[in-house]
Structures are given as C-alpha cells and as structure tokens.
Design goal:
Layout lengths: L1 H22 L6 E3 L6 E3 L8 E6 H5 L11 E6 L6 E5 L8 E3 L12 E4 L4 E4 L6 E5 L5 E5 L6 E5 L10 E9 L7 E7 L9 E2 L8 E6 L7 E10 L2 E4 L3 E4 L11 E2 L2 E6 L14 E4 L5 E4 L19 H12 L5 H6 L14 H9 L11 E8 L6 E7 L9 E5 L4 E3 L2 E3 L1
Parallel strand pairs: 3-4
Antiparallel strand pairs: 1-2, 4-5, 5-6, 7-8, 9-10, 11-12, 12-15, 13-14, 13-16, 16-17, 16-18, 19-20, 20-21, 21-27, 22-26, 23-24, 24-25
Length: 415
C-alpha cells in the first residue's frame, strides 16, 4: 500500500514537470533559482524563460532565435567569482543584457519596480523613446514604439455653401500609434487656422469623417483645415478655402437693410455677438424737418433709457402712452421704407453715434438739433436732443428741449 502511494506521488511530479515544460514552451532540466523564485533552465535551446549558464560567454552564445525581451539568464560566474542574473531589455542583442535585481533597489537611473505577486522586482531602465508593455505573463517589458502626432492626409473640399454654413471633413491617415481623442475641422479668416480658432469636434470614430461649419459671416473668405488630436499633440490636414454665400458683412457707410449703416456693434455693446455683424441703420433722409416730441400732452412715458439698443423700446413706450397723433416717435413707428417697417426713434446714445459718423451719412441737417426717444428722467415736459454740426470732431451737444418744440427727426433700425 505504501509503495503504491509513492508511485502515485512520483507520477504526479513527473506529469507536473512535463505539463509546465509544454505550457511555457521550455525544454531542459527545470530548477528553481535560489532567490528570484523562478524556474531555471539548464539549456541554451529554450525559447525565452529563465536560463542558467556558467559564464557570460555562454550567455552571449544563446542563439538569437531563442531570445525574447524580458527573458532572464543567471550567470554562475561573472568573471569575478560572483553569481549574477541578467535580463534582456530594449532588444535581444548581447548589448541588451542588463543586471537584474529583485531586492527593491535599482542599479541605474530610471530603474523601476513591479509587484510579481509576492515581492517587488526591479525593471532596469529602458532606452530613450521606449515604452513599457505588459507581456502575456503580466511582466513589464520595454518595447520600441514609433509614436507621433496624428497624420491627417486630406481636408475635404467645401460643399453645400450657404450664407452661414458650409460642409467639409477630413481623412486621418495615421493615429500616431496613440488613441485619437478629438477630430474635426477648424477655420478662420487668416491662413493656417488651428483649434484655437473656430472648430468642430466630431464624435464619429472613423478615419474619414464629415463636418459642418456654422455661424459663418456672409460673403467672407475662410480658410479651413481638418485636424486630429492624440495625447502627443494635434496634426492638421492640407488647407482649403472658400467664400461663404451672400454679400459681405456691411461696414459703416454701406447702403444696407433699407438705409445706410452708421454704427457696427463692438465688444461690450448691447446686441454684440462674437463672430457676427450687427449694428444700426439710418434712413437715407429725414422724416421731418420739424415736429413735436409728443402729441401735445405732457405725460410721463417711462421712455427714459439712453443706451444703445434702447431706442426701439423707448419708441414703443411713447406710442403706448401718447397713442394717436402727429409726433416724432409715431412718425418713425409708422414708417414703411425700402421694404422695412421696423423703424424707430433713436435713443440719446444711438443718436450720438449717428452724429459721430455724420460724414458718411447723407443729408443730416448741419447745425440742427434732432429729437431722440429718451425722455428727461425727472421732467416729463422735456426730451433729449442731439446737435449735429459737420465741422465739429467731438460728440457735439446734447441738450433737453420742451416736448412741444419742433425739431428734425431721423428714423433708424437695427440689423
């Protein structure tokens, strides 16, 4: 009975050794290294694994076709009577053998440690530009990897052009061996736009993608490039350009929107929208050479706003209070001119902008006061008026007048 038990144990041990050898593609006699706790092979014919040889010369004689990055080799005599273990790191040539330690202390700048499940193991420093990668056995190994920013081979020609939109896209030739984190197109009025300019960001994860630009200005020349970004940076495709549909954005002095542009909103102005063009238009002619501010009734209208953009609301308040009659706000409110019916009496500040750009506006009365829609806040009998004089370079005079005074009127509208 006892003999049978011994036979079973021996058979089990033999089966375990054979299975391990087949599973790891090793051949030769297995041993356990005394301090790294890994199987050691007394043969130069094994592929990878952990070898044991007598001298450094024998280690260097291991055939290249039997080598793998990360493999270990214990040399019993390093030429100085000491036993050392080496590891192939950064390649499989003899120059890639480096001393392997497992005591948690590195020997070179850049050495790193990993946990093998029972103790810390040193990974010797790789070469510049290499990356660590886990092997199938969960051992970190240095690999060469050619990492770059993405390569974008094409920016699609511009199609479906309207006043405010246009369609393009791009083709990503290479992700640079890293995951793409963003892709799309970027555009601007200057050449070689970047993602710091206007851009799209597409969620589609294909190498070829479409993309649509929005909020374009009419009649404007734009430059466009496709882009792709990975963790290393952003690559751009070739530049293309196009002109958006419609007419170019108007400037001061242009005939536009039923009249003449006399002011374009700037950053900080009410009504300013970044990337868009908006402003104020004056009627080409005066609507009256002299008319009262009110209909003869001194009522508080609440039309006391003076800022840019407040003239329309002031006009509506005056109409609501004064109702019918022949007076400045009513004249502008009822005006239908050149296809537009949204004219109004300008506020105090809007009227000042009209005066400041008077040289580009036709037929303003020289040396006259024009009515604004701004009521004097503490006196319902008076309203603000603007003095225009072509030879003054300042903002001119702004004064209050009795509402029954008859002053010229110039209607405006916004765009």
């Amino acid at each position: 009975m006892r003999g049978n038990a011994i036979c079973v144990i021996l058979l089990f041990c033999m089966f375990s050794i054979i299975s391990y050898s087949q599973e790891t593609r090793l051949s030769g006699t297995l041993k356990m290294h005394p301090w790294v706790n890994l199987p050691v092979i007394d043969s130069n014919e094994a592929l990878g694994g952990h070898h044991q040889v007598a001298t450094i010369e024998e280690m260097n004689a291991i055939p290249v076709e039997r080598r793998q990055q990360g493999m270990l080799c214990t040399v019993l005599d390093d030429g100085f009577g000491k036993q050392k273990t080496y590891q192939l790191t950064g390649g499989i040539e003899n120059k890639n053998w480096v001393v392997f330690t497992s005591d948690g202390t590195g020997t070179n700048v850049g050495d790193m440690r990993y946990w093998d499940g029972s103790k810390w193991i040193i990974i010797p420093a790789g070469e510049a530009g290499q990356f660590l990668k886990l092997s199938s056995s969960k051992i970190p190994i240095w690999f060469d990897l050619n990492v770059t920013i993405p390569v974008v081979s094409a920016t699609a020609i511009i199609t479906e052009i309207t006043e405010n939109t246009a369609k393009s896209g791009g083709i990503i030739e290479s992700n640079g061996a890293l995951a793409i984190t963003a892709r799309g197109i970027c555009w601007g009025k200057e050449e070689e736009p970047t993602i710091k300019n206007r851009k799209t960001e597409e969620s589609i994860e294909t190498t070829e993608f479409p993309s649509t630009m929005t909020d374009l200005l009419p009649g404007t020349l734009y430059y466009v490039r496709a882009y792709a970004t990975n963790s290393l940076g952003t690559g751009y495709g070739p530049q293309v350009n196009f002109i958006s549909g419609g007419s170019a954005a108007p400037i001061i002095g242009d005939s536009y929107g039923g009249g003449i542009v006399f002011y374009v909103f700037q950053s900080g102005d009410p009504g300013y929208i970044n990337g868009e063009t908006h402003g104020l238009i004056t009627a080409p002619e005066d609507q009256s050479s002299g008319i009262q501010w009110n209909n003869g009734s001194y009522e508080t209208t609440g039309a006391t706003e003076t800022a840019l953009g407040s003239g329309k609301l002031n006009t509506e308040k005056i109409i609501e209070t004064q109702q019918t009659g022949n007076y400045a706000a009513r004249l502008c409110y009822d005006l239908v001119l050149n296809g537009y019916d949204d004219w109004y009496l300008p506020s105090k500040d809007e009227l000042e902008k009209l005066h400041l750009n008077r040289t580009k506006i036709s037929n303003l009365c020289n040396g006259c006061y024009y009515w604004s829609s701004s009521e004097q806040s503490d006196d319902n009998t008076q309203g603000w008026a603007q003095f225009t004089y072509y030879y003054r370079t300042s903002s001119g005079f702004q004064s209050i007048y009795d509402k029954v005074s008859e002053l010229p009127v110039r209607a405006i509208r916004s765009f």
